[in-house]
Amino acid sequence: MKVSRRRLLTAVGLAALAGCTSRANPGTGGESATTPASSAEATTITGETVPTAEETLPLPMNAADLEAHAVSGGPSKDGIPSIDNPSFVAAGDVDFLNPTDPVFGVALNGDIKAYPQKILVHHEIVNDRLGDRPVAVTYCPLTGTVQGFERGETTFGVSGRLINNNLIMYDRATEAWWPQMLATAIPGPWNSAPGTTSLREFGLVWTPWERWRSLHPDTQVLSTATGFAKNYGRDPYGSYAPPRGYYANDATLFEPLAEDDRFSRKRVFMGARTADGAVAFDKSTLLAEQTMTGELGTTPVVAVADQRLDTGYIYLNPEERTVTSDGRTVSVGESTYAPDDLPLTSVHTFDAMWVAWYGYYPETNVYA
Amino acid sequence: MRENTVVGRLKTAVSRTLAAAVVVRRRRDAMGVAVGTAAGYLVVYLYALGHLAPGIAGYDVTIVSGAFSKFFQPELGPFSFTPVARVVVGPVTYLFSLNTVLGLGVAALVGLNLGVTYLAWRQPAACGIGSSASGFLASVPAVLSGTACCGPVLLIALGIQASGIVVTAFQFLFPVAVVLLLGSLLLVGRQITPAGH
């Protein structure tokens, strides 16, 4: 029996996270559905129906080795049940959210929706539709990552396994494994040769309920009438508002794939990855400084904060144009824009705990 | 010969334990200890599972569709089962699942352990009573049975890093706990002489 570490913890702070996106603009309801990396025509694997991106995201090791790092998190396949028939209520009818409770917001294809963290922590996956597009909204409590994927006509479920403490999803059409953060198929017990393709992604914003409601008063909110008997007032891992438990301490359930002690494990970074590399910006620093610059691979990028939603976005900036911001209005050259609507190529961005981001992307550029 | 002796001792222990259980049921004070302990254990067990905890306020009863077929469906881990009904009474939310039934069984064993221990403590020394502490052994397996159902979550709460082996080991805790509870019950039950009350 190997217990490599034991940490009794006392809680201290952590953060709210923020998802985010590309032109699939969560803040203002952009209409584009997918990220630059996945905006090409959908392809399929093994003749099935999972829409995949033209560009395959990089894996930290080959797929078979990744599979070998999968561990049981305890629950069996679908032991954590996805929500497959979600229902929604209007913002004015929501009586189960406190103003500071995190929600995962998205405005896409004409739909504006918020998925409360306190519901998703019990289900991890919601198979839903945004407009006419079938999607899966996915959340991994152990890595603090919320990511959206196109799902075609199939649905995603929770495999019960983890890699790098991160949710491994499976699709019910091919039963391939899809580690959430990697968004890329790897072998698993139900499909040993799924091929290496990546899912088409869209972003969600991790934001306090009061901010989302303020910006989108007409939002729909995932209802607690999920068809399951769950206690949505209780987060088994702790609490984000105020920060407590797993979200606030330095413990992880399993050893991460790689470790780096420059930052505390649960510190929240906003990361982006493409075939060219990975980049991560410290979220609290970004929110304080409004803009930060760095490189994704060798391409200059700029990150801008969005104070309206307490989040940020990353854009490619190969010409290194000067970008300044007050958190609400961003200047690029002589013109001003909303933080989520710059005239630059946005890169799919999402929040993640440092331990999880570094574990999967140890070659990442990082700015804090 | 030796086996006969062991079997004989076991028979005596079982018969004394059964007799002690009958006495526990008849004596109001011993019954109070047993029922009080069992009820307390059940509450703690359900709380540890998250099946009896503060929730979203209001008053509501929800029964999931296909509740009967889902009743035996595993959920978060070994001996953890899907709740099929939710009862919200003000700030408290109760989830009904097979775990309530399992918890009742273990709670009964824990209560009986403590009830019989109470009898042993109350009996005159002349009746041949030994250590009165042995019944408290029940607290150890009782804790084990609770952790069996929510192992990974417990590790998270305590900040303990796990391995696959540790997670797998949790599935054995519940049956081990039941066996230990039965063992400790016999251990203390055999010390009670039927004539001693």
Q: Would you mind describing this structure in some detail?
A:
By secondary structure, chain A is mainly β. Chain A folds into two domains: 5-220, no CATH class; 268-367. Chain A is 8% helix and 33% strand. Chain A has five helices and 26 strands. In chain A, strands 2-13-4-3-12 form a five-stranded mixed beta sheet. In chain A, strand 18 and strand 19 (299-306) form a beta hairpin. The longest helix of chain A is centred in the middle third of the chain and has 7 residues, at 209-215. The model of chain A is unreliable at 1-47 (pLDDT under 50). A four-stranded antiparallel beta sheet of chain B has the order 1-4-3-2.
Pick out its properties.
heterodimer; A: 368 residues; mainly beta; five-stranded mixed beta sheet; 26 strands; disordered N terminus; B: 197 residues; alpha+beta; four-stranded antiparallel beta sheet; 9% strand; globular
Indicate the radius of gyration of chain A in whole angstroms: 19 Å
Mean pLDDT of chain B: 77
The outline of chain A comes out as globular
Percent of residues in beta strands of chain A? 25-35%
Gap from first CA to last CA of chain B: 33 Å
